[in-house]
Design goal:
With about 180 residues, the chain is α+β, with helices and mostly antiparallel strands. The chain is about 20% helix and about 35% strand.
């Protein structure tokens, strides 16, 4: 079991209030324990979002396409602090200002690994600074690509099995935030 699987996550109730903690491994065992998480979208000047294909060694939904990066804050850690740390760990990207745009709660079982995601997922948005090129950690990320949100919706509709199950929901949260901009 990886060291990351032994990290603590913050268990929450349906309203996002902290109610305890558990290891990552324990929180993701069937039936899944609701815990705080975050999903980051980085966008470029053209309005495209950066997607990552999750590494083959991931314990949940390996090789599926997901948002730019995601993870779990430690108990008591802010989601923006944790997200900044994971952007640095996964993509070697530092100093991006992140704004929370909403929350998406979901539960999804991974048929390939038997693990369960049951997350109170804070959706964060930031812009990749000009001239910054992400350098993915191959133990976290198989590859990266840019895509417009509208093209991504069409791709997910055509082949949902290629995407992490939370991606449609967090993309919808992002879309709701973008209305009226």
């Amino acid at each position: 079991m990886s060291t990351r699987e032994q990290h603590l996550v913050e268990l929450v109730d349906a309203d996002g209030r902290a109610v305890g903690s558990a290891t990552v491994a324990d929180a993701h065992q069937e039936p899944g324990r609701l815990h705080r998480a975050f999903s980051v979208f980085l966008r470029n000047a053209e309005g495209e979002v950066l997607l990552q294909q999750r590494a083959a060694v991931k314990t949940r939904f390996p090789l599926r396409w997901g948002n730019t990066c995601c993870g779990h804050p430690e108990p008591g850690e802010t989601v923006t602090t944790a997200a900044g740390r994971r952007l640095q760990e996964e993509l070697s990207v530092r100093g991006v200002e992140l704004t929370e745009v909403g929350v998406y709660a979901y539960r999804a079982a991974d048929p390939a690994t038997g693990r369960v995601e049951h997350e109170y997922d804070h959706v964060l948005l930031g812009s990749l600074p000009d001239g910054v090129a992400p350098e993915p950690d191959p133990t976290e990320v198989a590859t990266l690509r840019w895509v417009s949100p509208s093209a991504l919706r069409a791709e997910i509709s055509a082949a949902p099995e290629k995407y992490a199950p939370w991606l449609p929901g967090v993309l919808e949260v992002l879309a709701e935030r973008s209305v009226g901009r």
